[in-house]
Design brief:
Elements: E1 15-19, H1 27-38, E2 46-50, H2 57-69, E3 75-77, H3 85-89, H4 92-97, E4 103-105, H5 113-116
Parallel strand pairs: 1-2, 2-3, 3-4
């Protein structure tokens, strides 16, 4: 009997970008799956969700478990999203514990306001 070939080791995903994506499925469904999958990836350094329509409070809440458990993210681009200050409270732990974060982009989000900043 021959043994199965050894599994190839996956390279870590360091940069993940969804720039202007128009998802075929419901955005919430996509973010639910994305949030679940990302929790297993520990070495993400850059995450860009730039210009993706319909990314609001619920979608950010679905990413909260990943963000709150991440300590390696250096850049987070949420340009064009529509979440508000209440949604930011759900990822408060991320902002308090992630000392790696160097770049946060919240441009073109009219809902964040002074409270969120």
């Amino acid at each position: 009997e021959t043994s199965p070939p050894p599994k190839k080791r996956r390279r870590p995903i360091e940069h993940l970008g969804f720039l202007g994506c128009r998802f075929c499925d419901d955005t919430r469904k996509v973010f639910r799956l994305l949030g679940h999958k990302l929790r297993r990836i520990r070495d993400v350094h850059d995450l860009a969700i730039h210009g993706v329509p319909n990314v609001g409070n619920e979608e950010l809440a679905l990413l909260a478990p990943f963000l709150n458990g991440n300590s390696t993210l250096r850049s987070l681009d949420l340009t064009g999203t529509t979440f508000d200050a209440q949604a930011i409270e759900g990822v408060d732990r991320f902002f308090r514990r992630n000392s790696s974060l160097e770049r946060l982009v919240l441009g073109e989000n009219q809902c964040v306001g002074d409270e969120g900043v």
